[in-house]
Specification:
By secondary structure, the chain is an alpha+beta fold. The chain is built from 2 helices and 10 strands; from the N terminus they run βαββββββαβββ.
Length: 130
Amino acid sequence: MSRPFHLAVPAGDLKDSVHFYEKILECKLGNREEGKWIDVDFWGNELTLHKTNMKLPSERHEVDMGSVPVPHFGVHLEPKIFEKIKENLKKNNIEYLDQPYTRFKDKKEQQETFFIKDPHGNVLELKTFG
């Protein structure tokens, strides 16, 4: 069994980032130091958003499925939640960095995945198995 993971990332304007994680991705909010940082329950993992102007560098790396953005972080979701997030992205006119696609087709590892950016430019990969 895995343990919850903690990740702290730069988030720019916390108001914009909090809206994205709470309303678009439907994550619950947790502890905070007003105006400095806030914890997000990232599907059982602790994601801490820090108010900062600093941005993470980004480049693409070639892997079996093509060119993926690095760094990125993400989560494996249940199919219903995955589809709901896709609906929320569409309703809020949030563009995909990489459109949803199927990886490892017809293998036990088959998964649908996509990449998006949060309001500060952090790259997220959301996926579901099946």
